[in-house]
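just leaving the lab so this will be short. what follows is a protein written twice so to speak, once as letters and once as C-alpha cells for the fold. can you read through it and tell me how you think this chain folds. thanks a lot i owe you, the record is right below.

___
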Amino acid sequence: MEVGKESEARFKDGDIVGVGYIVASMEVFKVLRSEHGGSFDSYYWSKVYPLAGDVTLEHLGINDDHLKETLWGEVDVIVNSAANTSFNQRYDVALGINTLGAKNVLAFARRCKRLKMLLHVSTAYVTKEKTGTILENPVRLDETKIETEVALIQKSLFELKDDNASQKNINFFMRDLGMKRANKFGWPNVYSFTKAMGEVILESMNKDDIPLVILRPTIIISTYKEPFPGWIEGVRTMDKLFVSYGTGQLQFFPATQHAILDLIPADMVVNAMLATMGTHSDQNGMFIYHVGSSNSNTMKLGFVSESFYEYFSMNPCTTKDAKPIRVPRPFLIPSMVMFNMYMAMIHKLPLQRTRGARESAEVLLPLLTSSLEELVLNIHARESQNLKQKKN
C-alpha cells in the first residue's frame, strides 16, 4: 500500500491522524528520531498507514468498500495483538475482543489474496495451570462450549437490562460471571480463558488453508536491548507489583521464595515474531510457539522481591510533598491460609471499622443538613437522654 504524503494528508482530515502522531511521539522512537533528525516525520509516514478499526466487528469495523477491497488485494502479513489483558474484565468485553476478535481477524485474513501469514499473539497461560514441561500444542476445548458462553452472555445482559439494573450492577455481574466461568473450566481468570477460546476458534476455522502462527509469550517486561534498554509503555502485570511495592501499597503477597516468574523482555518477543514471519511465510498450517525464559534463565520470586527492596532502598519513590517513601522488605507468605489470616488482620478488620464509622455518618448526614435547632433537638437531646439513662 502506498503511503507517505498521501496518507499524511488523508489522516489530517480525520480523527485517526491524531493517533498516528501520538504514536510517533512515543519514547520508543527516540533512536530513530536521533538517526533521522529533521526527516523523521517523513520517514515515519512512509512506513505507517493508520486505519480506524475494531476487531469486535465484522470486517474489523471497516465500512469503506473501496478501502476493504484495497486491503484484501494488498495486505500480505497480518499481526493480531489486539487484546484486553485485564484479569477481572467484564466477561462480554473480554470475550468480544479476545475470542470473537480473533475470529473476525481470521475471517478478514482469509479475504486477503496475497496473504503470506496471520500471526496471532496469544499468551502462554492459555494452557491452564500446569507443572513441568508444557508442550506447544493446541488448546483443547469443545467449540460448542464457546457458542454456549456467547449465548449465556447475551441472556444475562438481556435479563439485567430487563430488570433495569444499574450500570454499576451490570459491570459487577459481568465481571463476576467471567471469573466464575473461567474457574468452572479450569482457568484462573477471564483473560487467559477468553484468549484460550480465541485459539480454539482460530484452529477450528483455519482448516490449514492459510499460514497461521500462534505466539504465546509469558510475562512481558521492558526491553532488554532494542531500541534501548528499559523501554516500556504503561503499567501492566509485573509493573503493577513493582509500582505498588515502591509506593508502599504492597508489603506482602502469597508466594514461596522458590516460585518461578517467567519474564520475557518485549524486544525478545518482537524478535520471535519476526523470526516466525521469516520461517513460516507461505507455509499453510498452524504453528505454535511459546516465548519465555524459565527454561534457560530461571527467575525465582525470592530473588525478584529482594531486588525490589534493594532498588527502592537506593531509589525511593516520593510523596506529593517530595518526602521519600521507605519500604520494608517484601514478606512472602507461603500458604493461602496464612495469607487470608494476614488479609483479615491487616485489611479486613480496619475496613470493617471504617464501614461502621461510615454507616454512622450516613445516619447523621440527613440531620446535619437540617437547621441547628433540629440538630440540637434530634441529636444532642437524644444522646443526653441516653447518657442519663446509663447513669441511672
